[in-house]
Amino acid sequence: MVATPAPTPSPRVEELARSGLDTIPKDYVRPEEELKSIRDIFAEEKSILDGPQLPTIDLDEIDSSDEETRRRCYDEVKKAAMDWGVMHLINHGIPEELTSRVKAAGKEFFELPVEEKEKYANEQAAGNVQGYGSKLANNASGQLEWEDYFFHCVLPEEKRDLSIWPKHPADYIPTTCEYAKQLRGLATKILSVLSIGLGLEQGRLEKEVGGLEDLILQMKINFYPKCPQPELALGVEAHTDVSALTFILHNMVPGLQLFYEGKWVTAKCVPNSIIMHIGDTIEILSNGKYKSILHRGLVNKEKVRISWAVFCEPHKDKIVLKPLPEILSEAEPPRFEPRTFAQHLEGKLFRKAAGGGVEDKKPDYDKSS
Question: Is the whole-model pTM more than 0.70?
Answer without folding.
Answer: yes
